[in-house]
């Protein structure tokens, strides 16, 4: 996902689709890059609502409870001030582009938002 708080509908849609996939029994992983890394900040999770795509916090909580993993581009995070404290208690970690390539190869399907 590269969409962030500047595009709340598409950002929330990505999490909503991930939640639906999880509910269908699929393994779900997210690689957040660009402005998308900001989506795991608590202030964003608590306040972002997409038009017709719901509250980001509700989808995130369901994803986290269901075992979804979140990988944040280390370079995008550094450029936007996202730090380790923003990930505390979340099933998330900083990653390099090689992780994105590995995720794409390991999964049957890849969706982009």
What do you see in this structure?
The protein starts with 7 loop residues before the first helix and ends in a 7-residue tail after the last helix. The mean pLDDT is 95. The relative contact order is 0.21. The longest helix has 16 residues, at 8-23. A hairpin with a 3-residue loop joins strand 2 (49-50) and strand 3 (54-55). The strands form 2 sheets. Strands 1-4-5 form a 3-stranded parallel β-sheet. A two-stranded antiparallel ribbon has the order 2-3. By secondary structure, it is α/β, with parallel strands linked by helices. The chain is 47% helix and 15% strand. The chain has one domain: Hypothetical Protein Ychn, Chain: A (3-Layer(aba) Sandwich), CATH 3.40.1260.
Q: Percent of residues in helical segments?
A: 40-55%
How many helix segments?
A: 6
> Which fold name fills CATH's third level, the topology?
Hypothetical Protein Ychn, Chain: A
What fraction strand? Answer: 15-25%
Termini separation comes to 5 Å
* CATH architecture identity: 3-Layer(aba) Sandwich
Question: Structural class of the secondary structure composition?
Answer: alpha/beta
The Cα radius of gyration reads 13 Å
Q: What is the topology, as strand order, of the major beta sheet?
A: 1-4-5
Mean pLDDT, all residues? 95
What's the overall geometry? globular
> How many discrete domains?
1
Largest sheet features: 3 strands, parallel
Helix and strand sequence: HEHEEHEHHEH
The count of β-strands is 5
Low-confidence stretches: none
CATH class: Alpha Beta
């Amino acid at each position: 996902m590269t969409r962030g708080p500047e595009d709340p509908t598409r950002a929330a849609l990505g999490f909503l689709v991930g939640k639906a996939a999880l509910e269908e029994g699929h393994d779900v992983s997210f690689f957040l890059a660009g402005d998308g890394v900001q989506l795991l900040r608590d202030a964003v999770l608590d306040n972002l609502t997409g038009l017709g795509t719901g509250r980001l916090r509700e989808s995130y909580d369901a994803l986290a409870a269901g075992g979804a993993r979140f990988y944040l581009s280390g370079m995008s995070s550094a450029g936007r001030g996202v730090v380790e404290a923003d990930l505390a208690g979340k099933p998330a970690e900083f990653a390099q582009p090689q992780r994105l390539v590995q995720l794409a190869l390991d999964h049957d399907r890849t969706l982009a938002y």
